[in-house]
Amino acid sequence: MTIPFIDLKAQYKLVDEAVKKGIDGVLEHGAYVMGPEIGALESHLASFSDVKHGVGCGSGTDALIMALMALGIGPGDAVFTTPFTFMATAEAIALLGATPVFVDIDPITFNIDPDDLRKKIGEIKDKRKDLKPKGVISVDLFGQPADYDRIEPLAHNNGLFLIVDAAQSFGATYQGKPVCSFGDVACTSFFPAKPLGCYGDGGMVFAQNDELHKLLVSVRVHGMGEDKYENVRLGINGRLDSMQAAVLLAKFEIFPDEVIKRQQVAARYGALLNDVDGLTTPSVPEGNTSVWAQYSVLATDSDHREELMGKLKENNIPCVIYYPKALHLQKAFANLGHVMGDFPVCENISSRIFSLPMYPYLKAEDQETIASVLKG
Ligand SMILES: *Cc1c(COP(=O)(O)O)cnc(C)c1O
């Protein structure tokens, strides 16, 4: 038996009946788009997240685009974010014609560094009269919350909105509060490999504010007004399918238990790997929880990483680098004019990081095998 990187089949065995029943329900009532499952899921997940509104949508990427559209972002606007994230975070900003302004990361959490955020906001205000600072998108990388005690006031005291990109962190908490309760808007993804995944694409936007909620609902369906065929602004087709919502309703039943299991798996890794020479295991600041979308470790340098990943591959243990090339160095963002050296912490981390198999049903014996291969 080889160890999978993420075992969705083990999970399916636990929910197959509920999933099939949910999908059958959609087939029976026939409201394939915006069926009753959407509202049910929105209210379940909003209440789980301790936030007033949830708006189901087509993907995590759509969630970010809808949030930025609802907040009125466009050309000439600067939105601060991290270069150490999945493409979608900065792509959404650029797709709306706004300018992503990258901020270096914290070397422990790999999330946006509040000190560098303060510095970059100041620089844009002083030196870039062509840009209007409008907002911040923080990312809870690998499932661990960003530093909201510092980021939220920094954003708001500078007149900026905060969008929480919780695509990897749905189910995590910051100082006891669910991550999607932070920010003006929080966005998550239900891509199958995310902590709460469906069987296709899906996402959700969360907001506390009633006006923002109305805007998000409008933007989700082509900027509709009170009437479906009245369009009062531009929007997108950003709807979530009823079938994916039915899948999520079934999977949500076991999600709280899976979050606990993920934390147990991560704790076991921590204990097993703490004496691997030169390996740094992830740590989560006191008072916060991660949902461990990835279990990512650091080698001492890129040669050491190659050596460790080589050992895993020889033993058929899958491992992946998230992310080998930071966004400021991607061709798609060449127009921003960044060079190697612009974000030293991010570049250093991306040359040393790699992720190990991680899922709630990962067995202790498999983790022991992984640890012994890394030590060997
Ligand atoms: C996955 C992901 C997204 C995009 O979600 P999709 O559902 O794949 O569109 C956005 N941001 C981050 C940090 C992600 O990991």
UniProtKB/TrEMBL annotation:
Record PTM N6-(pyridoxal phosphate)lysine, positions in chain: 194
Entry GO MF terms: pyridoxal phosphate binding; transaminase activity
Keyword Metal-binding attributed: no
UniProt-listed Pfam families: DegT_DnrJ_EryC1
Keywords: Pyridoxal phosphate
Active site (record annotation): 194 (proton acceptor)
Family to which the UniProt record says this protein belongs: Belongs to the DegT/DnrJ/EryC1 family.
Name of the protein: Pleiotropic regulatory protein
Species in which this protein is naturally found: Pseudodesulfovibrio piezophilus (strain DSM 21447 / JCM 15486 / C1TLV30)
Primary gene name: degT
